[in-house]
Amino acid sequence: MKATLFFGSMAMLISVSNAQAQRTTFDDVVKKVEVKIEPATAKRGEAVKWTLSFQLASGWHTYPTRQPDEKHEAFVNKMKFANNESAVFVGELKEPAMKLLLEDGAQLAEIEGSPVWERTLVIRPDAKPGKVKISVPASIQVCNASGCLPPKKLALEVELTISDAPAAPVDPKYQKELDAAGKK
Predict the structure, then answer these.
(1) Is 13 within a domain?
(2) Is 18 inside a domain boundary?
(3) Of the chain's two ends, which shows fewer C-beta atoms within 10 Å, N or C?
């Protein structure tokens, strides 16, 4: 009888614990999400910096967009950088500082605290002046020692103003990527 009572009580505690864990949402864990372009107003031909930053609650972590070992390729954030008629993403995405762990015999990268991702964006020399929306669809995963929340799909959107000033020359290091991007 005591064993039945003990196991029944344990099952109830586990159920309550799981129910509390399931009530935790992405918004509880990720305290602030911010997408910016700096400078917010740019000349045609100019390179600007796109950034994504957020604040994770203590005890939680997220992941880079690529893991150092393919064994952990399921533990990544996904961001889709699409070019448009006004701007082209160039160069590689700069990832935040990571902590490398050894899990199941392979390296696993985790990111804690207040991570920031950065990518360069070049304004097309023939872009129309005015306000444009730059949108980067993303899927962000957050986890703690007990497990992971379902990935959260975000539409990371920010406004950029393209000035009507004469176009600036494109930095030669970006010209090849800009040419390869063609028109979308």
Answers:
(1) no
(2) no
(3) N
Would strands 152-162 and 130-140 be described as parallel, antiparallel, or unpaired?
A: antiparallel
CA 117 – CA 96 distance, rounded (Å): 6
pLDDT value, residue 184: 55
Task: Identify whether 64 is part of a domain.
Answer: yes
Q: Which two tokens stand for residue 131?
A: 């306000």
Question: What residue ranges of the chain have pLDDT lower than 50?
Answer: 1-20
Give the structural domain span for 56.
30-181
Q: How much is the pTM? A: 0.85
**Structure tokens, 90:** 């160039």
pLDDT by residue (tens digit) across 86-138? 999 999 999 999 999 999 999 999 999 999 999 999 999 999 999 999 999 99
Domain count, the chain: 1
Instruction: For residue 150, give Cα distances in angstroms to 29, 77, 127, 133, 153.
Output: 12, 12, 38, 27, 9
**Is the residue at 6 inside a domain?**
no
Q: Token digits for 32?
A: 């602030």
| Ordered DSSP codes for 7-70 | HHHHHHHHHHHHHHHHH--HHHHEEEEEEEEESSEE-TT-EEEEEEEEEEPTT-BB--SS-SSG
Predicted confidence at residue 22, as pLDDT, reads 60
What secondary structure does DSSP assign to 105-129, as a single string? TEEEEEB-SS-EEEEEEEE-TTPPS
